[in-house]
Amino acid sequence: MSEEATTLLALVSQLRGLADAINRRQARLTPTQRRVWADALWASCDAIDGEVVKLRAALADADAPPWRDIETAPKMRTILLFAVTDVDEHGTVKNWKMATGSWNEGYEDERSKAQGLTPWEWDGHRVRVYEIHPTHWMPLPKPPVPDAHPADQP
User: Fold this and answer.
1) 79-120 pLDDT, tens per residue?
2) Which of 63, 80, 114 lies at the terminal end of a domain, its last residue?
3) Domain annotation covers residue 21
4) Residue 26 structural domain
5) Is the pTM of the predicted complex or chain greater than 0.85?
6) Are residues 81 and 125 in the same domain?
């Protein structure tokens, strides 16, 4: 777990302790006031818990290797594909290609196989058996968020 996530969890624990203390020991507050303060603190804790869940998910994605073996690629979804096109005698990659593409179940039929086509699409074109084949894949990044005020731009 990252240092940030650990810190957030410790903060949540402290807030929960404070909420309990206010609820039990604060004689100067009326029971209604204690309940309002405690409810507000618990709501803050719940919000922080939600942020911790998002942080964990983001960290898990960040820890994932950027390029993944093609055998693990999702089907029927556009992804970023990578293929080695030239390797020297020592196994060092000398040339490679990258493009968007997808694996399509509908392309696994006998007619496609007879035509020498694979289930892969590479940059909008069907991949033939004798052509380049993707070896790795990566999820596409999220698209940029459009500007909230497009009319203000020149």
Assistant:
1) 777 777 777 888 787 777 788 888 887 777 888 888 888 888
2) 63
3) yes
4) 3-63
5) no
6) yes
CA dihedral 56, 47, 144, 84 (to 10 degrees): 10
Residues 54 and 97 in one domain: no
Are the C-beta atoms of residues 133 and 71 closer than 8 Å to each other?
A: no
Extract the runs of DSSP E, i.e. beta strands, from 58-138: 68-69, 79-87, 93-103, 117-122, 125-128, 136-138
150 within a domain of the structure (yes/no): no
Return the closest-CA partner of residue 103 out of 81, 121, 80.
121
CB environment 116-132: b (16+ within 10 A), e (fewer): ebbbbbbeeebbeeeeb
pLDDT tens, position by position, 114-138: 888 888 888 888 877 767 778 888 8
Q: Which tokens go with 44?
A: 């803050």
Mind listing the pLDDT tens digit for each residue in 2-50? 676 777 777 778 777 777 777 676 667 788 877 887 787 778 778 778 7
**Total of domains in the chain:** 2
CA distance 87 to 84: 7
Residue 154 lies in a domain: no
- Does 144 fall in a domain? no
